[in-house]
């Protein structure tokens, strides 16, 4: 933390960092078995950095878990494994392909695996008896998430009940739960996309390369640019073309779209994000377009 | 394939953070006002706006219903009401803002109390045609109860009263007189038309008689730095860091967020509840030692002496310490719809980083939050009711008067059977 101690004031980024660190320490102090959801996306990467800071000079006192849909960007998987090994973390992979193979879930009609991630996540939570799950979700992302608590109580089915949330006053977080129930914890609740990028810049945090402009073969569908790869096959009439793009979010490769961009550095990305007029999920997520309340419905089922 | 990010100095962003709560209903134009702030600061995105326009059009609304921006839940959109606190974010070059947007009706008092608990500023709206109503007074009272340091009254819909200065001044005078009876350290009254954008971002030509700032100008410049208590050192120990490592040995650091005061190496400190004293050896962060720590920094404190300290203890100064108490007087807002607070009731308490069990020993009165009348015959507090209670805790809490310290003066009450947060308490040490 860089402190401008002369006037006893901190910048808003320092204040967000301090709040997130406080939240992470609360969880480790009060909960039995926390785990950090790590997808290799920018938000989970920032969350991991905050975890390092919260417990230094000790190491991060919980494992990380990746819910692997099997539809991955290779750059992101490579990044995940490198980061985990650098920090000496324990990585747990909750695998959707494995769950498909053993019949826990079935492939959905549209081929998107966003929805079937949820039972796989819940299965892993039960198996490892995790009682607190750190997620990188932010309230500025989406209107249902704007109503989310920092400590979000989930019943034994992992379900979110938006009309029955615990009041959250001051910085007093209530993580009490019965066996089988759990708490989703969102340390980045009050961060915006721009804050995340400013923090990445300030802390010089390495990111997977797909966050920066590169050439990629894409097709346009529903006004969004999807990379052509083994998980995304162009439909009849969709003509692949090469475009300079980057990813604003990293999710399942079958439903995460790229945006046209020539931002190839963090500074350029910050300028681009500051000027953009479209939200990151609106620009890049096919899964949110299903209905007006797609996110709320997924969250009720146990999604983040 | 990872891209290493070279350290970059993105133009220093010495921006600070202002958290503000808004209370009101659609009728007051609250959603329009928030929509206007977001729109005019370019924080409203085209896909969000398009989604809201599409839903409005499909419902046959005559105009785009900006309430749909903040009413994010299916039930809220179906019923056209705000149920819960929604958080919205926007920034100007000077400041980042977090809006806790709360519903205004009395049945959502707990949501407003929640939103106000962390707010630096509260924004209350009244309709210029209606003037002050019961709800405006209630909101002002709740802001004062939660000790929100800055209050802004927006007299909205000035366009519908012909931008009449006298209408505005009558409302401003009445509200100022009412606020004088409360604990409102700073009050600003702004005449606005949220619909037309008058006095929202810039001063309106329609009201040349108004010489004060626009709403956004005030939000950007209101001085919040001195709201923080820098006098009383209060450092609730959150977690003890003891690396199990061969590289770092014999390290013992007390991690926490500074609640108030300034801590620095060399300071003599006292640890409660034990009362042992020592000196601060270092104040550290992951990025190295810092000269001073003050709110809201999260740091790790190391002491010169090895004393037994654990989570829930508090580091303070020998001659400036919180009260160590098991009998606590507090104003309590009850938040549970299933069971009332009753004398004799047993609960769990969370106060700073300390947890205890408690029994309600007495209910002095229930407050009518509209009239401020004290009902001393009350025997319980129901959902959204506020009263003065006395509790006895199983272990001592380390408390300050809520008016002096929102962190060491606030606590939550938890039902041990359901684990739900059922009440919010504010410690009273003076009358």
From TrEMBL, chain B:
The family this protein is said to belong to: Belongs to the TRAFAC class translation factor GTPase superfamily. Classic translation factor GTPase family. CysN/NodQ subfamily.
CDD domains for the chain: CysN_ATPS, CysN_NodQ_II, CysN_NoDQ_III
Alphabetical UniProt keywords: ATP-binding, GTP-binding, Nucleotide-binding, Nucleotidyltransferase, Transferase
Enzyme Commission (EC) number: 2.7.7.4
Claim: GTP-binding is one of the keywords in the record: yes
Pathway as given in its UniProt record: Sulfur metabolism; hydrogen sulfide biosynthesis; sulfite from sulfate: step 1/3
Subunit structure: Heterodimer composed of CysD, the smaller subunit, and CysNC.
Residues of the Tr-type G domain: 15-228
NCBIfam families found in the cross-reference section: CysN
Binding site for GTP: 24-31, 101-105, 156-159
A Pfam short name: GTP-eEF1A_C
Protein name in UniProt: Sulfate adenylyltransferase subunit 1
Any one GO molecular function term: sulfate adenylyltransferase (ATP) activity
BP term (GO), one: hydrogen sulfide biosynthetic process
PANTHER family registered for this protein in UniProt: TRANSLATION FACTOR
Record field: catalytic activity: sulfate + ATP + H(+) = adenosine 5'-phosphosulfate + diphosphate
Function as written in the Swiss-Prot or TrEMBL entry: With CysD forms the ATP sulfurylase (ATPS) that catalyzes the adenylation of sulfate producing adenosine 5'-phosphosulfate (APS) and diphosphate, the first enzymatic step in sulfur assimilation pathway. APS synthesis involves the formation of a high-energy phosphoric-sulfuric acid anhydride bond driven by GTP hydrolysis by CysN coupled to ATP hydrolysis by CysD.
EC category: transferase
Matching Gene3D superfamilies: P-loop containing nucleotide triphosphate hydrolases, Translation factors
